[in-house]
Specification:
This protein has 591 residues and is of the alpha/beta class. It is built from 21 helices and 22 strands.
Length: 591
């Protein structure tokens, strides 16, 4: 019986340059998962776009075939299909989840309207039936309130929430083949584990095949039956997942495995003496948003993004905040940056000099605020969208100094070149534009821009989440070196526990706007107490096919807080206190 999809000797070129894909061959059977693995620029995404015939205009298929063999239907050579026939295939027999949901979703339509459109086009469903099917799919992919998500616009949701909507859009029509291009990159580990479990369950129910593009070998070990390793448009190694991950034959595959972040260490370290010099303190900080009502005459809804947060960042150290999308991590960061004002009764204090008097960030005078903006800078999750695409790198780096009237043009240029060299780039980058750099290079540029004002504190909001594992390691090493050289303090936001275990001195775990557990990494990862913390650790995938994610542990901790064990249960009327269970280890629970 022929494979559901068979790609043979596929070669794709861009203009007159040498082929960017060179004789690529792979196949996937019904109910099977094939993982395409490799770094950025290896040809993974281009291979998948060729299947759906959505290549860039400059790209041309020079040779090869792509054959779809759906059960009970004649074989189709997708390379030779007319555009109208290909449109009937997309979204119905073959669906694709794209990596960047904000670029794939319409900002003018609600998520519900965009997902139901698939059912209108390919299943001829009525409005009521389509809405019911979409709400069920939204619940499957982890929306806590599917009806609210159905009515929301993309810009009203976090990056992780938008990705869930994209996954629901691809899966709602139950396609024969699902192409998933880095679909879990922007998701927290618990949602990632549940989505991987959902894809597997759908395969069992429908016989759907999956092509999974990823740079995370832990994900590959949990979902893939076969693996194809790509580098610079060529296949380096291919075979069963157990063989490729357990006994890699090619040096490039071994290098990818070596670069994969290890699971949090099981080594128990003695806690350092607590520093009495805190550069940043949050005291009883809460943030409540008012959402528009469903009807014009209705009352606005109140959403508590953060509730009674008490945190402290010692000078020269790193405090990491981990948790799922919507847990309040980024809201905390925005309040620290002064972009959001906390509810009355809370205070965020910044102490610029050791032993100096703290200043309330949200009660500063205009002169104090100008100084504060030079002392505290941000590194964002998506470096591409945080740069002006029309400004050269040199102008983008010099802009903060120009806004604050610091230095002359020559001094700003010299400072920019100095910062580029400090982050591992050279002066030739000055006249180039952001689109000319890879993701890892753009993140280095983002760090360089943050350092232009010589800050003492950096807020890093998921700075490595969208990067390849090898690039991720380079960025973390850079941040560690900068902290050692400059004495920087970090507020580091992430959903990757392996990253947190490497860089953090203290970890706060958030769920639903509340800190549920806090300790040093060595304590938290070896002796987790709260069920949600245990779920985060259990959901972290390992690059070992013999160590699958325990979905039962994940489901218990990542489920409804009212369903947690009684000592940890959280409801609308009752929230347990955050209590010290041992020195330096606090857990939200009843004694």
């Amino acid at each position: 019986m022929p494979a559901l999809l068979d790609v043979r000797d596929l070669t794709i070129g861009l203009g007159l340059a040498r082929p960017v894909l060179d004789n690529i061959s792979f196949s996937v059977e019904r109910g099977e998962t094939l993982a395409l693995v490799g770094e950025s620029g290896s040809g993974k995404t281009l291979s998948c776009r060729a299947i759906l015939q959505i290549l860039p205009k400059i790209a041309r298929i020079q040779s090869g075939t792509i054959t779809l063999n759906s059960p009970g239907k004649p074989a189709l050579d997708l390379c030779g299909l007319e555009p109208r026939a290909m449109r009937a295939i997309r979204g119905d027999r073959i669906s694709m989840i794209f990596q960047e949901p904000m670029q794939s979703l319409s900002p003018l339509h609600t998520l519900g309207d965009q997902v139901t459109e698939v059912l209108y086009l390919h299943r001829a469903m009525g409005r009521a039936d389509a809405q019911a099917a979409v709400l069920r799919e939204f619940a499957h992919v982890g929306f806590a309130d599917p009806e609210r998500a159905f009515r929301a616009y993309p810009f009203e949701m976090s990056g992780g929430m938008r990705q869930r909507a994209m996954i629901a859009m691809a899966m709602v029509a139950k396609p024969d083949l699902l192409i998933a291009d880095e679909p879990t990159t922007a998701l927290d580990v618990t949602t990632q584990a549940q989505v991987l479990g959902l894809i597997k369950s759908l395969q069992v129910e429908t016989g759907m095949a999956v092509i999974f593009v990823t740079h995370d070998l832990g994900v590959v070990a949990n979902i893939a039956d076969k693996v194809v390793v790509l580098r610079r448009g060529r296949v380096m190694e291919a075979g069963k997942a157990a063989d490729v991950l357990g006994r890699p034959a090619h040096g490039y595959t071994r290098a990818l495995l070596a670069a994969t972040p290890a699971s949090p260490s099981t080594e128990v370290l003695e806690p350092d003496a607590a520093s009495g010099d805190a550069i940043l303190e949050l005291h009883s900080v809460s943030k409540t948003y008012r959402l528009r009502a469903r009807a014009a005459w209705g009352s606005p809804a109140l959403v508590a993004a953060c509730r009674n947060i008490d945190l402290s960042v010692p000078r020269g150290k790193t405090l990491a905040i981990v948790g799922e999308s919507g847990s309040g991590k980024t809201t905390c960061a925005r309040m620290v940056l002064g972009a959001e004002r906390p509810d009355p009764g809370g205070a965020i204090l910044f102490r610029a000099t050791p032993g100096g008097d703290p200043v309330d960030i949200h009660a500063m005078s205009p002169a104090e605020r100008v100084t504060f903006r030079t002392q505290l800078q941000a590194v964002f999750q998506d470096p591409y969208s945080s740069f002006n695409p029309r400004m050269s790198v040199g102008d983008a780096l010099a802009e903060p100094m120009e806004i604050n009237n610091i230095g002359q043009r020559a001094e700003r240029r010299d400072r920019a070149i100095q910062m580029l060299r400090q982050v591992g780039l050279d002066a030739s980058a000055m006249n180039r534009f952001p689109h000319a750099f890879s993701g890892g290079q753009r993140q280095r540029l983002s760090i360089a821009r943050a350092l232009m004002m010589d800050p003492m504190f950096l807020v890093c909001d998921e700075p490595t989440s969208a990067l390849d594992v090898s690039i991720q390691g380079h960025i973390l090493a850079l941040l560690e070196d900068l902290q050692d050289q400059r004495g920087l303090s970090y507020l580091f936001i992430s959903h990757d526990l392996a990253v947190v275990a490497r860089i953090a001195d203290e970890v706060a775990v958030m769920r639903g706007g509340i800190v549920v557990e806090q300790a040093r990494p060595s304590v938290l990862f070896n002796h987790p107490v709260h069920p949600y913390t245990r779920a985060l650790i259990a959901a972290r995938p390992d690059a070992d096919v013999a160590r699958k994610i325990d979905l039962k542990v994940v489901a218990q901790g990542a489920g409804d807080p009212e369903g947690w064990p009684e000592a940890f249960r959280i409801s609308a009327s009752q929230v347990p206190p955050l209590q010290m269970v041992q020195p330096g280890h606090r857990v939200r629970c009843h004694v």
